[in-house]
């Protein structure tokens, strides 16, 4: 067994004198960045701790430290330097944060805050050191709590895998979106069962293992690919197992067993299978250094990049200027608000009349931060009933996002569950919802901002970003037209007739919002 002194020597020993000043400056800059964007870091830490999808991220910081320690023996042979192109990287990271701040997109804010930490490394340590730290710097991306955007897609994929296996096992089943009807009962592939938390954790592991355990790029790609495909397939098998068990032991027993299995125990089994399958293909020798300082010093491109050296004073002043510009622009954009009328009303619609709003299962879309909200019901002479929800926002930003998570047609923590995409409507986003497992509702959403009419949250975000970058005040209107399916009146037909009766929808929304 090696002594501590031997371990220290193998790790590179004490910090060289040429590294002490740059490392202190880097530590100081990181403290400034963590303080300047403390709200974003606090929000991320809460997500890592409170949301099971992101619990694995708590392991990423120590992994990053270990990755740097792996490379330290070679890194200390390089000479750190201040490098002015690092300001371009830092400016790009600050711009990503700014886009998130002015659009209310937390994901961009958080990605920008993390990217600024990474960009400060080439700025203060130079291109050669950054080349040696390239993988840890890229691995910082796994600190971003990303993945919730994949939930609906993974729900649909899991449902299709599950019903396919159910049919193969001889059990009759009918699939409707994320709901599977079997003789033992109706099963839902809920958001919690989508497998997203295992997928993103497995991808993080796969990328790490690909770098640490493999040298061959085809093997690295195969490892990451396996960490994408295997958890998706395994999650489908798990869901099928629950349905299969329910046919023999009852739905309650099967659900109870699934709750025991479905957790990090399930993840450990899948992870173990992937490692077992990849073990014999590991091709990095145990004693092989992760990086080669001599090769980095001798690299012609890196040598030319080193000529772009600047003083640390210039680098630090440039960093401060970029931070002040990003924070100042975000502050100004956040205070822009369009003038709105004191009151708005749902108008008369030709061929339709207003009726009492009394749904069998209460449905009221979410519109946090909106200055005005309207919810009412219209009926026509053909027996059609539609529910209309309209929200008007003076601006978009943190806490007032028309297309934000938990906003819109699907009420969180309610009797309503997302069932799948609905019939296409021009410019709108169509969704099918299921209430209490029995009431089917179709909801179509449109957003209006300036001349834009769309059902795409991404297009709305881009429009809002454009407005805020130009410091231009434009209100946002969210319209949701919904109906429940009845034996004599399909929801899609009632919605189509209503939208046709309003005339051009963009002009109708503007009239309701009193913008025309």
UniProtKB/TrEMBL annotation:
Compartment(s) where it occurs, according to its Swiss-Prot or TrEMBL record: Cell membrane
Membrane topology: Multi-pass membrane protein
GO molecular function, one term: peptidase activity
One GO location term (cellular component): plasma membrane
Transmembrane helix as UniProt keyword: yes
Signal peptide location: none
Domain Methanolan biosynthesis EpsI: 320-504
InterPro entries attached to this UniProt entry: EpsH-like, Exo/Archaeosortase_dom, Exosortase, Exosortase-1, Methanolan_biosynth_EpsI
Residue ranges crossing the lipid bilayer per the database entry: 23-42, 54-70, 82-102, 114-142, 196-214, 221-241, 261-282, 302-326
Keywords of the record: Cell membrane, Hydrolase, Membrane, Protease, Transmembrane, Transmembrane helix
Example GO biological process: proteolysis
Protein name: Exosortase A
Organism the protein comes from: Novosphingobium mathurense
């Amino acid at each position: 067994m090696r002594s501590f002194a031997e371990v220290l020597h193998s790790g590179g020993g004490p910090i060289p004198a040429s590294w002490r000043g740059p490392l202190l400056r880097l530590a100081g800059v990181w403290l400034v960045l963590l303080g300047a964007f403390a709200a974003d870091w606090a929000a991320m830490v809460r997500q890592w701790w409170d949301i099971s999808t992101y619990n694995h991220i708590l392991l990423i910081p120590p992994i990053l430290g270990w990755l740097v320690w792996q490379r330290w023996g070679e890194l200390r042979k390089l000479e750190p330097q201040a490098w002015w192109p690092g300001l371009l990287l830092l400016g790009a990271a600050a711009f990503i944060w700014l886009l998130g701040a002015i659009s209310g997109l937390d994901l961009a804010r958080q990605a920008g805050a993390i990217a600024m930490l990474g960009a400060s490394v080439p700025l203060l340590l130079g291109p050669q050191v950054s080349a040696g730290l390239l993988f840890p710097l890229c691995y910082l991306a796994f600190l971003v709590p990303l993945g919730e955007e994949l939930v609906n897609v993974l729900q649909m994929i899991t449902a299709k895998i599950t019903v396919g296996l159910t049919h193969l096992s001889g059990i009759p089943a009918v699939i409707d979106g994320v709901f599977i009807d079997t003789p033992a009962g109706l099963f839902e592939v809920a958001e919690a069962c989508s497998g997203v938390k295992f997928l993103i954790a497995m991808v993080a592991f796969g990328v790490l293992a690909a770098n640490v355990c493999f040298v061959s790029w085809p093997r690295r790609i195969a490892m990451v690919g396996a960490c994408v495909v295997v958890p998706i397939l395994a999650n489908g098998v798990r869901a099928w197992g629950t349905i299969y068990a329910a046919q023999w032991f009852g739905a309650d027993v099967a659900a109870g067993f699934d709750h025991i299995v479905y957790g990090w125990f399930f993840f450990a089994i899948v992870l173990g299978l992937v490692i077992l399958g990849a073990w014999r293909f590991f091709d990095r020798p145990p004693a092989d250094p992760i990086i080669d300082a001599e090769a980095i010093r001798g690299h012609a491109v890196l040598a030319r990049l080193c000529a772009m050296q600047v003083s640390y004073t210039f680098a630090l002043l440039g960093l401060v200027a970029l931070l002040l510009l990003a924070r100042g622009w975000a502050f100004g954009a956040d205070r822009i608000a369009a003038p709105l009328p004191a009151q708005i009303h749902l108008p008369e619609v030709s061929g339709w009349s207003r009726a009492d709003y009394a749904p069998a299962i209460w449905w009221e879309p979410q519109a946090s931060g909106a200055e005005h909200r309207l919810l009412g019901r219209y009926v026509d002479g053909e027996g059609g009933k539609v529910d209309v929800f309209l929200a008007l926002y003076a601006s978009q930003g943190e806490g007032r996002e028309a297309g934000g998570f938990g906003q819109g047609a699907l009420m969180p923590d309610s009797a309503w569950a997302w069932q799948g995409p609905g019939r296409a409507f021009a410019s709108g986003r169509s969704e099918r919802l299921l209430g209490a497992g029995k009431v089917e509702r179709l909801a179509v959403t449109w957003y209006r901002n300036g001349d834009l009419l769309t059902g795409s949250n991404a297009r709305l975000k881009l429009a809002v970003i454009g407005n805020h970058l130009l410091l231009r005040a434009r209100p946002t209107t969210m319209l949701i037209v919904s109906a429940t399916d009845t034996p004599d009146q399909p929801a899609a037909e009632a919605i189509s007739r209503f939208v046709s009766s309003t005339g051009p929808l963009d002009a109708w929304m503007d009239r309701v919002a009193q913008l025309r």
